[in-house]
Automatic annotation (TrEMBL):
<feature type="transmembrane region" description="Helical">
    <location>
        <begin position="21"/>
        <end position="44"/>
    </location>
</feature>
<dbReference type="GO" id="GO:0000155">
    <property type="term" value="F:phosphorelay sensor kinase activity"/>
</dbReference>
<protein>
    <recommendedName>
        <fullName>histidine kinase</fullName>
        <ecNumber>2.7.13.3</ecNumber>
    </recommendedName>
</protein>
<keyword id="KW-0418">Kinase</keyword>
<feature type="transmembrane region" description="Helical">
    <location>
        <begin position="160"/>
        <end position="179"/>
    </location>
</feature>
<dbReference type="InterPro" id="IPR003661">
    <property type="entry name" value="HisK_dim/P_dom"/>
</dbReference>
<feature type="transmembrane region" description="Helical">
    <location>
        <begin position="191"/>
        <end position="211"/>
    </location>
</feature>
<keyword id="KW-0472">Membrane</keyword>
<feature type="transmembrane region" description="Helical">
    <location>
        <begin position="223"/>
        <end position="244"/>
    </location>
</feature>
<dbReference type="Pfam" id="PF00989">
    <property type="entry name" value="PAS"/>
</dbReference>
<keyword id="KW-0902">Two-component regulatory system</keyword>
<dbReference type="InterPro" id="IPR003594">
    <property type="entry name" value="HATPase_dom"/>
</dbReference>
<dbReference type="Pfam" id="PF00512">
    <property type="entry name" value="HisKA"/>
</dbReference>
<dbReference type="InterPro" id="IPR013767">
    <property type="entry name" value="PAS_fold"/>
</dbReference>
<keyword id="KW-0808">Transferase</keyword>
<dbReference type="InterPro" id="IPR036890">
    <property type="entry name" value="HATPase_C_sf"/>
</dbReference>
<dbReference type="InterPro" id="IPR000014">
    <property type="entry name" value="PAS"/>
</dbReference>
Length: 902
């Protein structure tokens, strides 16, 4: 960090007064001149007080005033404001009283306070009184000394102005007498000053300037100009008027030229010098302004900001706008730490900055949109002028990408190290220049070397490999003749009857220089891989043997649909030998073959293989009913299909026989149910037949008595209805007992259940059982075979009647209810309040020949489930919490099917 010039010592913005060694020396010289002047008055030596021009001498009060000012300047250099103010009261009083007496023409009687016997003999209008210019010099120096210690910046800057004016006045008026003005007139005395007074004023004024040299004589200005340039300009500006005035006076006194010529020469010289100085200054200013503009433009493009010591933003560059997303108008006046989300600088850090330190660290900042940035933040304190408070310049560099790259590299190194450690890899390096090996990771262990023990070169390494593994690195010739590139190697050592296999690759690199040959390689333990390869070959042979003996045929098909393998079972099934079909199109055997579209077969994953029933062709062109399961697999870069084929000819024949037996069983079940309901149905028929007989008897009696014909007609209608009722009962019995194919059609559910209840109510083996029907919705039409669904309901009701038989502790009841489901089905529930179902039936409800009845065959629930599933429904049973059993099944509704078809 560039050291502040000079560094601030407090947060006030003002530089403290620094007394350099030249200040006391100048004050001491001025005090010596004043002491000599007083000695000249005391001892009557006019030369001491007049500077060898005895006609115009330094007055005693003038000497006292200058001595007091010198003492005050020394106090100003020590920053003692109170003492300086009191000390400067005396020269101010002397200067002001002298000017006041000159302007008013009065005498206050203080002119002859010192050496009255000597001062009265002077050739002056007012002996002992300081002259006009010496009095002005006293006032200017006193004011300059007071301005040095002022707290106001504007007043402090006036100290140099007062000093320069005093120097110019003293330089002109003090040199008139040495240049030839020996007998000044009365009016000329206002423009004259004794040589000691002029010398004292110059010494004291220069001392004041030295106290404030950062204004009048800066050593390292921050304005683009060098210190020599500014100092030269200052000397020219001060000396040009003095030299011009003195030259004009000397030429006029010497009489070498006329007054007009002197005026012309003086004007031309001043104008020429002024124009030259202005032109030179203008060029320097233009050049420095261009350089400053370029620097400002470069700084503005970079992320640079300027804040006060509290962190409030004073300047916000365009680079900061691009980096953080805040515009200059939005950022100015705000605290940078809050704006960017960076941690604030501590008080100790601020003190270190003001002391000349430079602060630099990496911080996490945030853009306006909330995105985090990693920023290299550096700051330093500067103070352009002593009248301005210190400022902090912040420079930000976006290192987000670099940080991410470093983290990625570190993560990559960590992953590489982890991979090397997990996979037990080894890395080795060798160069011809050093002929030394460097091992990393597990390289020493894999090469059977003791850790850190091997220090030999390439030949020693080859000998070790030959002694340990029986072979060596196969690269003939000396290293200088080795070809560049990759060189794989494989080393095998037998330990305890177990082969230890080490594999690796060495990469040989040739550099640009002669003999610049190096080698880097990687080595790994391949023992387990070799063992797995042998095991894989063994298992592959075993798998081939198993596949040749499985009862299902196996065919492997490539991506072009050609046969790659043909098992022995496939030869038996299709009648072809494997040699006849290998390489042939698979449609020779499977005309409807479709390539699998799914992913490769994953063992144990549902739906990984596509299974379907199709037809194949044997050697003689006969169709074979087969079930084929096709899965996809990846073998290297090639996609193949594996087809497992099962012959369904015997299975279909067995299924047909089972269906025939099932129909016979259903018919037998209905016949058995009719036998059980025979007595009840006879009772049902007896009622309409008895009523018909009674009605016919009554009609005969009325006709014999010539009764009312209308009553006879009504009784005949009643008899006819009873006969129709008996016929309806007989039709339901015949339809229920008939044997036929499954005939699914739209059937009103309420009619199906109503007819079933008529059939069930005829049963009298469980007297007192209350049978109720509770439809929860208006039951729609269902797609069903009326007779088979009635058979299901009759079987369920018979089971309920049997369960309620002998139940005396409660009123036996059977409830049939319906409920509409959301999936287009309707659920039918048969619920009783009996003892419920045993756990054996709940756990295995549909196992054939499993029954709770003494004489039951265990076929009822199994038959009911098959009938419901044939209709596309579900069948289930459960126990009711309050006691009893519930059997439920679903049927598709006819309205839902119409909606889906539409």
């Amino acid at each position: 960090m560039q050291e502040l010039n000079p560094p601030p010592q407090r947060l006030g913005g003002s530089l403290p007064v620094r007394m350099t060694p030249i200040v006391p020396a100048l004050v001491l010289a001025a005090q010596l001149v004043c002491v000599l002047a007083l000695c000249g008055w005391a001892f009557g030596l006019a030369g001491l007080s007049g500077g060898f021009f005895g006609g115009y001498r330094m007055q005693p009060l003038t000497a006292v005033a200058f001595m007091t000012i010198g003492f005050g300047i020394l106090l100003s250099g020590t920053s003692r404001r109170g003492f300086t103010g009191w000390v400067m009261a005396l020269p101010l009083l002397i200067g002001c009283s002298a000017l006041a007496q000159e302007l008013s023409g009065l005498s206050l009687g203080i002119d002859r306070l010192l050496f009255p016997g000597s001062v009265v003999h002077q050739f002056r209008s007012y002996p002992g009184r300081p002259g006009v210019l010496p009095a002005l010099g006293i006032l200017l120096l006193a004011l300059a000394s007071l301005a040095v210690i002022s707290r106001a910046p504007a007043v402090r800057r006036l100290s140099v102005v007062f000093s320069c004016v005093a120097i110019a006045a003293a330089a002109i008026s003090g040199t008139l007498l040495p240049l030839g003005m020996s007998t000044p007139g009365p009016e000329t005395r206002y423009a004259l000053m004794s040589l000691p007074s002029a010398l004292t004023i110059c010494l004291l004024a220069i001392a004041v300037v030295a106290l404030r040299r950062q204004y009048a004589w800066p050593g390292s200005p921050d304005c683009g100009f060098g210190s020599a340039t500014i100092q030269t300009c200052l000397l020219l500006c001060v000396s040009m008027p003095v030299v011009s005035a003195l030259g004009h006076f000397w030429a006029e006194r010497a009489g070498h030229a006329s007054a007009e010529m002197i005026e012309i020469v003086q004007a031309v010289a001043q104008v020429a010098l002024s124009c030259g100085l202005i032109a030179w200054a203008w060029m320097r200013i233009a050049r420095e302004s261009g350089a400053r503009s370029a620097v400002n433009l470069a700084l503005d493009s970079a992320p640079v900001s300027i804040t006060d010591v509290d962190g409030r933003i004073l300047r916000w560059s365009a680079g900061c706008e691009r980096l953080y997303g805040w515009t200059s108008e939005q950022a100015l006046g705000r605290f940078q730490q809050k704006l960017t989300g960076t941690p604030p600088i501590s008080a100790a850090g601020i003190e270190a900055l003001l002391g000349g330190a430079r602060h630099e660290n990496e911080v996490t900042a945030y853009r306006r949109d909330g995105r985090a940035l990693r920023v290299l933040h550096s700051c330093q304190a500067v103070q352009p002028r002593s009248d301005l408070p210190p400022m902090v310049v912040h420079s930000m560099t976006d290192i987000t990408a670099r940080t991410q790259a470093e983290r990625a590299v570190l993560a990559s190194d960590a992953r590489l190290s982890l991979a090397i450690d997990l996979h037990e890899l080894g890395i080795f390096e060798w160069s011809l220049a050093t002929d030394r090996f460097v091992f990393h990771g597990h390289a020493e262990r894999l090469f059977a070397l003791a850790p850190g023990a091997f220090e030999g070169g390439i030949e020693a390494w080859k000998q070790h490999l030959r002694a340990t593994f029986g072979t060596t690195f196969h690269t003939p010739g000396p290293p200088e003749t080795w070809p560049a590139g990759r060189h794989p190697f494989r080393l095998v050592a037998v330990e305890g009857g177990i082969a230890k296999v080490v594999e690796g690759t060495a990469h040989i690199h040739h550099g640009p220089g002669e003999g610049d040959i190096s080698m880097i390689g990687i080595v790994m333990d391949a023992t387990e891989r070799e063992q797995r390869a042998e095991m894989l070959k063994s298992r592959e042979s075993e798998l081939r043997s198993i596949l040749e003996t499985v009862p299902e045929a196996m065919i492997t098909i490539d991506g072009d649909g050609r046969i790659r393998s043909f098992s022995a079972t496939a030869e038996t099934l299709f009648g072809y030998a494997a040699t006849e079909v290998l390489g042939q199109d698979v449609r020779l055997l499977l005309p409807r073959y479709v390539r699998p579209s799914g992913k490769p077969v994953v063992p144990g994953q549902d739906g990984a293989a596509e299974t379907r029933i199709t037809a194949g062709l044997d050697r003689h062109g006969n169709e074979l009913p087969i079930e084929i399961a096709i899965g996809a697999a990846e073998v290297g870069n090639q996609r193949i299909a594996i087809a497992f084929i099962r012959n369904l000819r015997e299975q279909l024949a067995a299924q047909a026989r089972i269906n025939e037996l099932r129909e016979q069983l259903l018919h037998a079940s209905r016949a058995s149910a009719m036998g059980e309901m025979g007595a009840g149905l006879a009772h049902e028929l007896n009622q309409p037949l008895t009523a018909t007989s009674n009605l016919l008897g009554a009609i005969d009696l009325m006709m014999a008595r010539e009764g009312d014909p209308e009553q006879v007609r009504c009784m005949l209608e009643l008899a006819r209805q009873e006969v129709l009722r008996a016929g309806s009962i007989i039709r339901r019995m015949r339809a229920f007992a008939a044997k036929g194919e499954l005939d699914i059609q739209a059937e009103p559910l309420e009619e199906v259940i109503g007819e079933t209840l008529q059939l069930a109510r005829s049963r009298r083996r469980a007297p007192g059982v209350r049978l109720r029907y509770r439809p929860s919705v208006a039951a729609p039409s269902v797609l069903a075979d009326r007779i088979q669904i009635q058979q299901v309901l009759v079987n369920l009701l018979n089971n309920a009647f049997d369960a309620l038989a002998g139940l005396n502790d409660r009123q036996p009841e059977i409830i049939i209810s319906t409920r509409q489901l959301n999936d287009g089905h309707i659920m039918v529930s048969v619920i009783d309040n009996g003892p419920g179902l045993p756990e054996a039936i709940i756990n295995r409800p549909f196992e054939t020949f499993s029954s709770t009845k003494v004489n039951g065959m265990g076929l009822g629930l199994s038959i009911c489930r098959r009938i419901v599933e044939a209709h596309g429904g579900c069948f289930s049973l459960r126990n009711v919490p309050d006691g009893g059993a519930a059997v439920e099944f679903t049927l598709p509704t006819f309205a839902e099917l119409e909606l889906k078809a539409g």
